[in-house]
Design goal:
The complex is a heterodimer of chains A (498) and B (322). With 498 residues, chain A is α/β, with parallel strands linked by helices. Chain A is built from 18 helices and 21 strands. Chain A is globular and about 70 Å long. By secondary structure, chain B is mainly alpha-helical. Helix content of chain B is 76%, strand content 1%. The longest helix of chain B is centred in the N-terminal third of the chain and has 46 residues. The chains are: A alpha/beta (498), B mainly alpha (322). Chains A and B meet through α2 and β8 of A and α6, α7 and α8 of B.
């Protein structure tokens, strides 16, 4: 390793009774891109959050350039030369792009209490040009930009002041290929300038390709640091999970035909500005994949099928002819939907695991209108255990769970409801390999029980590996259909997407 | 690019966006003026009348500018009316000894001190701003009643310069410019927006959230202090009221503030507050010109408040409102 610039010395952090990071000691070299990987809940984000002042440290310390770092927030960390691009939205609505870039660091533009907004805008425009994000207008409100552009703004915000350490926390999933390339270019530039990048991603291939070395955390404990050039994807999976992952990661059956019984029929479904004239049928026991580039309409389609879209036209009918025109009708008739946006659209964030799991089944669980705690507890516990949710108990708030376990809770509620048709949007988004494997196994099991699944995904391998059929969307319309086959490759799918 | 997208881009652009906002506001004002002119010809809407409406509306618009600082942070304050009453009474008492200096200092310092107290108690007690300020409004009303000793407090005729042009215009427009300056050219404005957008992220950006909330309350009541100067000068006297009687004074500034929020996207919240206040004055005076009784006017106030808030706070389809 090059000269160490940053050291973590026995750093620990607990949330209640959960020890998120346990005595982690690590060194980071100058001019190094270090991958930081681990399952959901392994402590990666907590570790870097402590480094960047987002969370306080319970014990241990960080030493930067030989001096102990004590920071209370991101701006203090920035001043010490450490910055972060966070996993979630890190820009604020209601502010201009310029205000977001310099938020908390306006002092250089302030004289006698008055901000020189013209100079701030000029500087922000210069930076955006320099980074190759010239299509973003510094004086516009951030609200006018989509998630990806807002991530690009964050890249500028996190790196314009020349930090020595830059943390990139699971950012690439929000970016298109061109956005990713832009990010990788800046990671490379930072390394060439002698700075250190800590890169967190669940895409192991991406981590191997883009980093010099990789540190693996498991259950908050440091497992190993390895050279990226000396490991493969399977080695990393083994280190992350602690054992060999089964070879049946995706489905291995290719010749099993899907029955002809149509359980869901969608005709001329449109949502203004999102999807147009989409028609398809879903069969019993089928996994129907929907793929395409960002903003092609796949995510809106999931909502529209579940009747959660506004301004929807067209028809969604079940096999028995029942029309689905409202969310209530959808749930009542055995249709389930797990949104891509778990935290905002899928889970009741402030509620417990129990309440989240019981929510759609409350009517079934009530005895003459009365809800008995014992019954609710039994129901939630059974379904949480079936999904192997890693929890302290069913009364634990769902907000305290890692991304993967939150997804398990979101799925557990529909398992409990015994829905026949399940719409899964981004079922493994931001989820580690172990939970991914669990979810794929669950999907296969549901399929074998005759349940039908609409799987919406931006991951090509997932679509190829799990779907019986794949419908590819482009500009809100279906642009092609691909049937499951051993000989399918990524290029077949990409050709229909572009 | 589609025509609607092109229009949208133009509307949200820096220069044309502002121009579009101003044209839209002027059109609304013109439409209301036109309707009442048709309904009450000769009795409403002459240039002299309009100048009178403007003079009455700027009083509330000054308060609305202050309101803006805390409403963008997601906070609320019910004690504005009580502060106007108390600060006016303090200002009148001091003016008897110190003239205009006493009036200005009494109103503005008392107003700002009330803002400090509201903010301080909101932060320390950790209870919603709405509850804190309702509790405090009862206390301020009682203090005002005690200070006035049950008497109507009249401003000496020689000190009523801020109740008529050009004194009221100069003071109000100075306040508008000051509010615009703080919103656009100081960290306070940026941080108020940031806190309103996501307090957690704002905190992580090193912003001392409590400090800026306190500043927000102080600024609100600083402007309410100026509103008190204008109110007592315009009305020449102030009578203490209790039992939440001061609450009605909150609503017109609140309506003006919502105009500011709605037109913020066009980059001109203060202009929107001033023109919005003027539009509200046109509506009220239009009804008066029509001879509508007070009860009808109250119905109009309530309905106008609901309509303005509903129309200005346009939520996306499916957005959750609590």
């Amino acid at each position: 390793m090059a000269n160490p610039i940053l050291e973590a010395v026995r750093v620990s952090k607990s949330f209640g009774i959960t020890r998120a990071v346990k005595d982690v000691s690590l060194s980071f070299g100058e001019g190094e891109i270090r991958g930081l990987i681990g399952e959901n809940g392994s402590g990666k984000s907590t570790f870097v959050s402590m480094l960047c002042g987002i969370h306080s440290i319970d014990s241990g310390k960080f030493i930067l350039n030989g001096e102990e770092m004590k920071v209370r927030n991101q701006v203090e960390a920035n001043r010490r030369g450490v910055s972060i691009i966070v996993q979630e939205m890190g820009t604020l609505s209601g502010l201009t792009v310029t205000e977001n870039i310099f938020l908390g660091n306006e002092d250089g533009f302030v004289r006698f209490g008055i901000k020189n907004t013209a100079a701030m805008n000029r500087e922000a425009s210069r930076l955006l040009e320099k980074y190759g994000f010239g299509h973003i207008n510094a004086t516009s409100m951030t609200d006018h930009y989509n998630f990806e552009d807002r991530k690009l703004i964050e890249i500028v915000k996190a790196t314009y002041f020349g930090p020595r350490i830059v943390v990139i926390d699971e950012t690439t999933t929000a970016l298109s290929q061109s956005g990713r390339e832009a990010l990788f270019k800046h990671m490379k530039r930072l390394r060439e300038e002698g700075n250190t990048v800590i890169f967190i991603s669940h895409d192991l291939l991406e981590v191997i390709e883009r980093t010099d070395s990789i540190t693996v955390l498991r259950d908050g404990v440091l497992i190993d640091t390895v050279k990226s050039s000396e490991v493969g994807e399977d080695d990393l999976k083994r280190l992350m999970v602690g054992r060999e992952l089964g070879s049946h990661y995706y489905r291995t059956d290719y010749d099993r035909p899907v029955p002809d019984d149509v359980v869901l029929s969608v005709k001329n479904l449109s949502v203004p500005g999102e999807i147009e004239d989409v028609s398809f049928e879903l069969r019993k026991g089928e996994i129907l994949g929907f793929g395409g580039l960002s903003n092609c309409g796949i995510h809106e389609l999931g909502k529209a099928v579940f009747a959660a879209s506004y301004g929807r036209t067209g028809k969604v009918t079940l096999g028995d002819g029942t029309e689905i025109n409202s969310i209530r009708a959808a749930i009542k008739n055995g249709l389930a939907y797990a949104s891509k946006d778990r935290d905002n659209e899928s889970l009741v964030y402030g509620a417990s695991i129990r309440d989240n799991i019981c929510l759609p089944s409350i009517g079934d669980l009530a005895v003459k209108g009365i809800l008995w705690n014992k019954k609710l507890n039994r129901f939630a516990d059974k379904n949480a255990r079936m999904m192997s949710v890693k929890m302290t108990g069913i009364n634990q708030p769902v907000s305290a769970l890692s991304g993967g376990n939150k997804q398990k809770v979101a799925l557990a509620r529909w398992l409990g409801k015994d829905s026949d048709i399940i719409v899964l949007d981004g079922p493994t988004r931001g989820i580690d390999v172990k939970v991914k494997a669990d979810i794929y196994a669950l999907m296969s099991e549901l399929k074998s029980r005759g349940k039908s699944i609409i799987m919406i995904s931006e991951e090509i391998q997932e679509l190829l590996g799990m779907s019986d059929r794949i419908l590819v969307m482009k500009n809100g319309r279906i642009n092609g259909e691909i049937t499951r086959s051993r000989n399918l490759c990524e290029e077949d799918l990409i050709a229909k997407m572009i | 690019m589609k025509f609607s997208e092109r229009m949208n881009k133009l509307k949200t652009g820096k220069f044309f966006g502002r121009l579009y906002g101003i044209i839209l506001l002027a059109s609304i004002a013109f439409a209301f003026w036109g309707v009442f002119m048709l309904l009450t010809p000769g009795n409403f809407g002459t240039p002299r009348h309009l100048y009178f409406y403007l003079q009455s509306s700027i009083i509330f618009s000054v308060g609305a500018c202050g309101f803006y600082f805390i409403v963008v942070m997601g906070l609320f304050d019910f004690s504005i009316g009580a502060n106007v009453v108390l600060s006016s009474i303090v200002g009148v008492i001091l003016s008897r000894q110190y003239g205009y200096a006493g009036l200005l200092f009494g109103c503005i310092a008392c107003g700002t001190a009330i803002g400090f107290l509201n903010g301080f108690l909101y932060i320390k007690l950790k209870i919603p701003s709405m509850i804190v300020t309702i509790g405090l409004l009862l206390i301020y009303e009682s203090i005002a009643s005690f200070a006035a000793q049950g008497q109507k407090q009249s401003l000496p005729p020689a000190l009523q310069g801020f109740g008529r042009a050009p004194g009221n215009m100069i003071l109000a427009f100075t306040a508008f410019m000051l509010a615009g300056l703080i919103i656009r050219y100081t960290k306070i404005g940026t941080y108020c927006y940031a806190i309103g957008s996501n307090e957690y992220v704002a905190k992580n950006m090193g912003i001392n959230v409590n400090k800026y909330k306190l500043y927000g309350f102080m600024l609100l009541h600083f402007f309410v202090g100026i509103m008190a100067v204008l109110s007592v000068s315009y009305g020449t006297s102030m009578t203490a009221i209790t039992g939440m009687g001061s609450m009605a004074r909150n609503f017109t500034p609140l309506m003006g503030c919502f105009f500011g929020l709605a037109f913020k996207k066009y980059g001109s919240p203060i202009i929107a507050i001033v023109v919005g206040g003027f539009i509200i004055a046109i509506i009220f005076n239009g009804f008066i010109a029509m001879g509508a009784p007070t009860t009808i006017q109250n119905v109009v106030t309530g309905a106008a408040l609901l309509a303005i808030v509903a129309l200005t706070l346009k939520h996306e389809k499916g957005a959750i409102v609590k």
